[in-house]
Amino acid sequence: MRVLIADDDKNSRILLRKELEHVGYTVEVVTNGKEALAAAKLSAPDMIISDILMPEMDGFKLLREVKKDELLNKIPFVFYTATFIDPEDKRFANSLGVSRYIIKPMEPDEFLRNIDAVLKESEEKTLAILEPSETDEKLSEMYADTISRKLQKKIKELKLLRKVFNNINEAVIIIDPQGFYIEQNPTHATLFGYSDGDLIGKTPGMLIGTKVFCKMLKDLSEKGIYHEEVISYTKRGQKLYIDLISFPVFDEKGKVLCYTGIKHDITERKKAEKALKASEEKYMALFDNSTDAIFILNSKGRFVEVNDVACQTLGYSKEELLTMSPEDIERKPMIHVFEDILKRVKDEGVIVIERVNFTKDGRKIPVEVRQRLVEYNGAPALMALVHDITDRKRAEEERRKDYMNRIGVMVVAINSDGTIAFVNKAGCEFLGYERDELISKSWLDTIIPEACNGDAKSAFCSIGYSDEGVADNFNSDVKRKDGEIRPVKWNRVPMFDDNGDVAGTICTGEDITKLKKTEEEKEELWKQLLNAQKMESIGRLTSGIAHDFNNLLQTTIGFSTLIESGLADDDPKKEMIVRIHNSGERAAKLIDQLLVFSRRQVLDIKALNPNVTIKIMRDMCSRMIGEDVTIDVSLEPSINHIMADETQLEQVLMNLIVNARDAMLTSGKITITSENVTIDAGSTTKYPGLQEGEYVEISVKDTGYGISAATREKIFDPFFTTKEEGKGTGLGLSTVFGIVEQHNGAIYVESEINVGTEFSLYFPVAEKAEIVVKKQTVCNATGGTETILIAEDDHDIMLLFSMTLKAEGYKIIEAENGEQALEESAAYDGQIDLLLSDLIMPGMDGFELSREILKTRPAIKAVFVSGFAGDSKILRTLKTNSIPYMKKPITPKRLANKVREVLDSS
After folding, report:
1. Is residue 861 classed as helix, strand or coil in its secondary structure?
2. What's the pLDDT band for 252 if we cut at 50, 70, 90?
3. 681-694 as b/e, with b when 16 or more CB fall inside 10 Å?
């Protein structure tokens, strides 16, 4: 039986079609009454099911036209509407001769029973084929009255609702009974960053997650309301905490028209609650269990809380300490000292100093104080953990006396005024002085070279002057008695007098003349290692998101292409669709660039002559960079072949040439050279990352303004750029780095400010120059009638592929995963010509699915698609067996071409 459906709502059309086709009906769908009338006249259906409210020609007018036509007036006509539900509407429909009047929504089983009953009555001639009961004039009057009444009522309701909807300060959404977005208010659009167009065909699951969304629909269905605190995400990926309340909106008959959701942003409240709870738990546990004295001071430097250990150590009661400040237990003014401590804590986070505390009975206790900022009773405060180091100090003093007399390194004690208090034997021997020649002399004037005197004063004497008690390391040159300058590595600690006050600095020194050069070399190698590890980490992240991101881009590019093809050239929406499409393409290229530098891109490696590629890029870029910049090449004629991907090598040269041009403010010269080089055991230290062997060196040198040392450390970082905002992604040199690394090569940079920069690239020499030229097969898809089984777990991509290939004439069988695809194959009696499958699916992947289907359908062909085939085993299998494969995103045209190409292949 053939049924004609007229409904302007896409979701309703799809739902009706699936319900009817599922039970064996042949269905044709149109979007309005005008199209329905034309379709019926062209080929009369067995039944017409129509909505009432439609553009161009509504259901009432369609019914009148059908009843006027002698060839169509016997066809059963059913209204299925959610808008015209008043008794007057039904009476008017009956007066026009409708066969059945059904109110949306209706359960599928009940709806099908109604349709079957109408058709059965029609077949058995028991269905009353009603003729219009009124004159045309009377029907026109009734029609006008019905429409006017409906519009006036709706207009009044909509005006009020629209005013509230647009002006409410809370984010509000409206979804249909199936859960799809109908509308959002301006507050919602501002909070989450999605335009109205972004939400078309989507559900709140895209913001709050499918699991939470399903629970929301379940609660709305069972309880009539949903109220929870949920986690949601903005378009930019920002995480928000939302207080969400949702409830149904009913029509006059009690049926659900839609659901309304009101969202209140509680993100800041949640953050504050979480931070406060963690802080309170942490510090209460610390207070209760610490073996050290703990003090909390307010911004004025007064104690506002102390623990029991503080009271026991100092001999004061808690009440007494809460009336005191650090001045009282250190017995000296602390106003400026406390201000300095607060500043340091704010800058450094945590500071550790050594002090002397006085007990209530006057005893001195040397202590180590660890201080940090906390929040106390809603206000900033300073927490001090105070550890008694009396035993440690006593033992240190004894050991120090013995140690300094026997130690083999230089030890110098410097008073707060900069004079020398002590020098051990090793120090005297190293400096070339007798001890009497140094004691009481100025350390800076006697030992420190004049050029270093300013910095050295801060380094050697700052502890004594700042009274902060921090031990640290630093390097400083010293001048021996014979005038020789030597670099020394120093370690400094404070020197205390009998009152516990800092009296100077004790420094131990080690001659690092021989080690300094080695350390510099090690530092450079360490930077290289850290850079490689950093690139590897970012590469892992990139490959991890590539599959899902390319799936998203697939729907963006695919659907925008289909929409664009259906728009006239002068349609104002066409430019917007083109912009969406172009943005998707740029995003896809960005992912490809990220995969390149992360060494996870599939390369087409073959032996090639690098000189040929250099000359091609020289000619191409010369036309692009302008007349003020020249490109010179100096190429070794007998250059060796390298194993490389020609396209990637071109991209490397292009990026380096463009960067070189940008480095020259006006005119300049770019020089590209090639040379055969040998890396032996003696030169691997100069070229970290390269193994011994034969290489081709390609150098790109410019006469630009150069790169600073600080910038050189980051130039290969992804997204780092020195260009203005909007004039670079920062992926240029990171992509170059990734390509060279993926070719088992290395890249080095040398630069001097106002002189220029040179990038040197090293590629391993090919063992055998074997150039293979492959003919490219060009296929312009012409469509076909074959049957294609699509296995794709992403619903939107499945819909895109299905629509694209159906438009080409193919018969499509859809499956959401590998298991369902096997079931569809087993249930289908006819021939299936092609399997179009995603490589990566939950459960059974594309390869497993192909192997299983081939057992029962050995003639079937296959095309695989994937957002990212990052598994090296999969990549080798694809390449080795020449298996048709396309990486998402794929345009509809490319998909059609590839399908036709594979179907036509032998």
Report:
1. strand
2. low
3. eeeeeebebbeeee
The SS3 call for residue 854 is helix
- For residues 656 and 670, what is the distance between their CA atoms, to the nearest angstrom? 10
Spatial contact of 350 and 372, defined as CB atoms under 8 Å apart: yes
Encoding tokens for residue 469?
A: 């008690």
The full length of the chain comes to 906
- For residue 363, which amino acid is it? R
User: 861: which strand partners?
Assistant: 834
Strand partners, 752: 756
User: Roughly what angle, to the nearest 10 degrees, separates helices 59-68 and 33-42?
Assistant: 30
SS (HEC) of 282-302: HHHHHHHHCCCEEEEECCCCC
Burial class (CB in 10 A: 0-12, 13-18, 19+), 425: middle
| CA terminus-to-terminus distance, the chain | 40
* pTM, full prediction: 0.34
Return d(Cα 597, Cα 569) in angstroms, integer: 39
Predicted confidence (pLDDT) per residue in 692-701, tens digit: 889 999 999 9
CB 248 within 8 A of CB 175: no
Q: Model confidence over 479-524: pLDDT tens digits?
A: 899 988 888 888 888 887 755 678 888 888 888 888 877 776 677 6
CA 86 to chain centre: 51
- Backbone φ and ψ for 725, nearest 5 degrees, come out as -60, 135
Question: Residue-wise over 471-497: b if at least 16 C-beta within 10 A, else e?
Answer: eeebebebbeeeeeeeebbbebbbbbe
Q: Residue with structure tokens 């202590």?
A: 367
DSSP state string for 90-122: HHHHHHHT-SEEEESP--HHHHHHHHHHHHHHH
Tokens of 721: 């750029």
Burial of 237 (0-12, 13-18, 19+ CB in 10 A): exposed
669 Cβ contact list (under 8 Å, min separation 6): 629, 630, 631, 632, 702, 703
319: tokens are 């009440």
CB atoms within 10 A of CB 782: 11
Task: From 785, 792, 791, 837, select the one nearest 811 (Cα to Cα).
Answer: 785
Asked if 505 contacts 493 with a C-beta cutoff of 8 angstroms, the reply is yes
